[in-house]
Amino acid sequence: MTIKQVIQIYHRHSFKVQHLHGNGQFEHITKHFSDVGITINVMGRNEHVPEIEQMIRTIKERIWATVNQLPFKTFPHRLIVEMVYNVTFWLNAFLHNYGIHEVIGLRTILTGLHIDHNKHCSLEFVSYDT
Q1: C-alpha 108, offset from chain centre
Q2: Contact, 38 vs 7, CB < 8 A?
Q3: I want to staple 117 with a disulfide (CB 3.0 to 4.6 A). Which of 45, 61, 95, 121 is the partner?
Q4: Is the domain of 22 the same as that of 60?
Q5: At residue 129, does pLDDT exceed 60?
Q6: Within this chain, do residues 52 and 42 fall inside the same structural domain, yes or no?
């Protein structure tokens, strides 16, 4: 998904994107976004956006917790992708302390989809024969 697509999703839901934070790789698109009224704050070399770094750490910690529960020594690429998807799905499904809405999670705001407890919250238990 491109930055333009993400901004369009926010605009469709009545959010106006005014600022973007990024590293030096975003420098070349600064002029394009300034034409549409979006300011890009490009961080200097070896600088990081604290909120983004914290979210990356949170995602890595939750993936690491999942990895430590699995009985594998190596992981196929697809499994890693699905672990990242799963972690971000659940992080966006619930309210954040400093979120953009008091009662609705970010996932619901942007996609219009609600958590279906029968679909998303069921656990399967397998019986083992000894």
Answers
A1: 13
A2: yes
A3: 121
A4: no
A5: no
A6: no
Pair 63, 41 in one domain? no
Neighbours of 105 (CB within 10 A): 19
How many domains does the chain contain in total? 2
Higher per-residue pLDDT: 1 or 52: 52
Look up the domain containing 42 and give its range.
1-46
Residue 11 makes CB contacts below 8 A (sequence gap 6+) with 17
8 A C-beta contact, residue 29 and residue 39: no
User: Is the separation of the CB atoms in 83 and 68 below 8 Å?
Assistant: no
Rounded to whole angstroms, the Cα distance separating 20 from 52 reads: 11
The answer to whether residues 33 and 59 belong to one domain is no
- Reported for 16-24, long-range contacts at CB under 8 A and 24+ positions apart, including other chains, are 21/49, 21/51, 21/52, 22/49, 23/47, 23/48
In tens, the pLDDT along 44-83 reads: 777 777 888 888 999 999 999 999 988 888 999 999 999 9
Residues 72-117 pLDDT 10s? 889 999 999 999 988 988 888 777 776 666 667 777 777 777 777 7
Report residue 41 as tokens. Answer: 């704050």
